[in-house]
């Protein structure tokens, strides 16, 4: 096997004799008389093996070795030539990464053996690198295949546990999901989820539970704190012993807290919990133990607490309707879910997702919303939030025979209050002192966008006239239109 060898030595006779010997072995030899010249030759040519003396002017062989092996981390083997008494330098050379060292005067047979071993080592190293690359490519291929299978299983799993409805389009909901992911990692942290009805509080609670590292397959038990009488609620939550109260089962029964052991208890509408049960719940959260109704023995539980409410909890605490100490305890982790009207960027993507799925289940094909229908959907206040939007799309899929949705098809969503105030159905004349504000609240940014759109329509798209009408410069108007995505 022919290789390119760089010989670096300051003695001309040594260079000449070694070059002749190496060329007779069939190798190509380049040479330099010092370390500086050797480094230059090394960079300019394709070198397979470097043979260098140690003691040379300008740059020593050790410095040349250090540059190539330590600084540049080159895989090229280096054989060092040392004089008698240079054993310390030889040891240093090996520490720097020299392949071998030979003493002067050079035994050409030893040199030939060293070169042969270097060639064998290089061949093995190249073969190892090739096999390693092939192995890594195979691993990457198998990993991609496994990731695809895992993603498919993940989609099936999310569908089974009810998380396939999670759709995140706005920055506000991205922040909510990120918070949920952070809280999922520590089961010891109770989480309070606050938001209006229909915003998806239970869905966020399920995200916290199912993303936890050890509990995704453990029970998730939900209970509505305002859906039953006080007596039944206490027995439902804590369980009861035989004969604890009139109507109790003869054998007794564990409550929801015990049923959720190892997993999560989701207390929906926690603000409706009776005051005397708030005290008992606080003790359970702190002690991780409970007494069944009518029981004398403490029962240990391992439960994560996630609570939700559509009330303003701080106001409930101020009004003495909810215990301050319990509020502090359940809200160590706190997530505020904005209403749908506060994140209007979600409305159209959600509407498209819900109606497409609903049409598909009915064996129909959804086509599109008209521009007027889209404007209505975006400006409607959605007091029932995402739940109301989803139910509305389900009804459209049931009633419509074709896939084109216009504003008349959405009339069932409107109530009388909104009909009287909607910018879609009522011409609102703005004045300095005679402006009536809608009772349900006003999103100023959306209102400004509506004014600009309306002024642009009135002026038939003429930006100069529109800017003059609005009292702003044409450049300012173009900046706002660009931000709105109109141009």
Gap between N and C termini = 68 Å
Quick one: CATH class of the largest domain? Answer: Alpha Beta
- The helix/strand class is alpha/beta
The largest pleated sheet is described as:
5 strands, parallel
Query: Which residues sit in consecutive blocks of at least 5 with pLDDT less than 50?
Result: 415-429
CATH architecture annotation of the largest domain: 3-Layer(aba) Sandwich
CATH superfamily of the largest domain: P-loop containing nucleotide triphosphate hydrolases
**What's the number of extended β-strand segments?**
16
| Rounded mean pLDDT score | 83
Radius of gyration: 39 Å
State the CATH topology of the largest domain: Rossmann fold
Write out the strand line-up for the largest beta sheet, numbering strands in chain order.
2-1-3-4-5
Number of helices: 19
Strand fraction: 5-15%
- The helix content, as a percent range, equals 40-55%
Number of domains: 4
Characterize the overall form.
elongated
